[in-house]
Amino acid sequence: MTTKTQEWEAVIGMEVHAELMTASKMFCTCAVVDTTLAAPNTATCAICTGMPGVLPVINRKAIEYAIMVGLALNCEIPPYNIFARKNYFYPDLPKGYQISQYEYPLAVNGWIDIDLPDGSIKRIGIRRAHLEEDTGKLAHMDDGSSLVDYNRSGVPLLEIVTEPDIRSAEEAEAYARKLRAILQYLGVNSGDMSKGVLRVEANISVRPVGEDAFRTRTEVKNLNSIRNMYRATQYEIERQIKVWESGGAVKQETMGWDDARQATVTQRSKELAEDYRYFPEPDLPVVEVSREWVEAIRRQMPELPDAKRQRFTEELGLGAYDAGVLIADRAIADYFEAAIAAGGDPKKVANWIITEVFRLMNNDNLEREDIGSIKVTPQTLVELIGLVDKNTINNNIAKKVLAMTYEDGGSPAAIVKEQGLAQESDEGVLREAVVTVLDDNPDEVQRYLAGEEKVANFLMGQVMRAMHGKGNAQIVNQLIAEELDKRR
Ligand SMILES: [Zn+2]
Questions:
Q1: Which residues lie closer than 8 Å to 319 by C-beta, 6 or more apart?
Q2: CA 130 to ligand 1 centroid distance, Å
Q3: Could you list the residue range(s) of the whole structural domain that residue 471 is in?
Q4: What percentage of the chain has pLDDT greater than the value 70?
């Protein structure tokens, strides 16, 4: 870890809440809507607003999605799971209890392999995944009042809990990225943390290396991006080490991340254990999960990130690094595969995406996973690479055309034509330019002939400049050698 004094290590467990993208809610027929767009309280009914006397009905699709996630996380799927009432009061919870799962969760004892920045892989244990319902959402107004929107109330929510296997902020980030990718690949969650459909919490403690017991942990929540999760985790590790090293003691508390101050801040202290008085939900049956059902779900599962990486390296011949970058997010993998389907050469396409396309997106402050929304389509990219392959344009001009396509869209071939960017390969024209440059630079020519071979690069640059960057570099190179030889 980068916090690195040799003496301390972080112990981190992650809890992720993922809304499932079913059409309807967990226990009623209300639609699951985008709560950042829909008018408040328009997707609600007597069940999800907790009216007396109503009966919940389990959404079978939500169970199937949750089992699918459990399988993707290499979990055991017990033969039955049981919903329980978790009792507490909060204005966003109209029933006074949340239907969740407690002693009998839907999936247990799994693992996922995370990909670390140095190229290594680490296995993180998954303790459990259980299904519950989301709460409503409070909006706190400037005048001190609060409003509640129950559109989110009752949306299927899967809670995924790791073992405390994570040892650094880098590992926490790698875990969040891998889990998010798996959920996106399965098509059960968009992964959009800014909309709150995926919520990541880190339970963090530190201890001297060699100490077996766990020390007091804090919980960092309300993180709206993976980047902020990384920063908050790193900050909290360093803060706790300082507290212990200065002779203090870390207090058990729930922390949030203050983006403006770039610091974790206390949200509430948790000195008393919460007692939710869980008991089995009397209005719902035990969910029996037959092995046939599990296998039927397994057969419907799409290719997951690790399998895709293996296929990219073994069948498409990509290097492990390139493959890892391309599978890291479903949107990137989809973009890459669409380009291959459009006839692109896998290695060339991978190279253009990872270097030039990502560079343009980065300059534009876009995340890599936003690749689906840029104006360079997979087809456009393949068209551009084709122009280079056919020697219509050289690599440098291709980069310029890509930047133009990135700004305004459109066809690279058309841009090359309209702007007269096609490469000059006519030997007569190029030789004339070479001779002119040699005549204009007698000193450099003499130095070259005296054995200073790198002067050829300067001459090359001068010719390309005279050709406005459009000379066929290979031919120019060869002509410079020929013309210099003539002057020996
Ligand atoms: Zn409802």
A1: 313
A2: 21
A3: 427-486
A4: 98
